[in-house]
């Protein structure tokens, strides 16, 4: 892996998947330089919208959030872009909280919306 390449995790709640896809499309020129990982549905949607290669994990509620969390614990993820929907209850909220807790604990840059995603991507 090249020194400048970051390993970026992509995940979004259902009502934020369109926003993440639009963000990824706008930043395709930068994202193509990095290794992308995504939960099943989100990663598939980003690939369809942008043509970028995203390594797919399981769907979030089926373990994808935990897979990203394990990658963080093992030092295999450098950035987490997680577009969270703060207005909708999530059936797997415990998994979501665990993933954000791990990103905080392991000091992995975490972006929860477009503005912070822009800032984080500019820094990698």
Automatic annotation (TrEMBL):
Family, as annotated: Belongs to the methylglyoxal synthase family.
Single GO MF descriptor: methylglyoxal synthase activity
Keyword Lyase appears in the UniProt entry: yes
Binding sites annotated in the UniProt record for substrate: 13, 17, 39-42, 59-60, 92
Coiled-coil spans in chain: none
Function: Catalyzes the formation of methylglyoxal from dihydroxyacetone phosphate.
Organism of derivation: Devosia riboflavina
Gene behind this protein: mgsA
Listed Pfam families: MGS
Chemical reaction(s) catalysed: dihydroxyacetone phosphate = methylglyoxal + phosphate
InterPro entries on file: Methylgl_synth (IPR004363), Methylglyoxal_synth_AS (IPR018148), MGS-like_dom (IPR011607), MGS-like_dom_sf (IPR036914)
SMART domains, A to Z: MGS (SM00851)
Assigned keywords, A-Z: Lyase
GO biological process: methylglyoxal biosynthetic process
Database matches in CDD domains: MGS
Protein name: Methylglyoxal synthase
Broad EC category: lyase
Enzyme nomenclature, EC number: 4.2.3.3
Start and end residues of each MGS-like domain: 1-124
The keyword Lyase belongs to this UniProt entry's keyword annotation: yes
Catalytic residue list: 65 (proton donor/acceptor)
HAMAP family linked: Methylglyoxal_synth (MF_00549)
């Amino acid at each position: 892996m090249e020194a400048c390449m970051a390993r970026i995790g992509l995940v979004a709640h259902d009502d934020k998947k369109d926003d993440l896809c639009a963000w990824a499309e706008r930043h395709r020129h930068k994202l193509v330089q990095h290794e992308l990982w995504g939960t099943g549905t989100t990663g598939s949607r980003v690939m369809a919208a942008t043509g970028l290669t995203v390594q797919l994990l399981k769907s979030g509620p089926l373990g994808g959030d935990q897979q990203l969390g394990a990658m963080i614990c093992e030092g295999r993820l450098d950035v987490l872009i997680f577009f969270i929907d703060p207005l909708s209850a999530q059936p797997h909220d415990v998994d979501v909280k665990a993933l954000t807790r791990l990103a905080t604990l392991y000091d992995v840059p975490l972006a929860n919306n477009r503005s912070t995603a822009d800032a984080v991507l500019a820094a990698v």
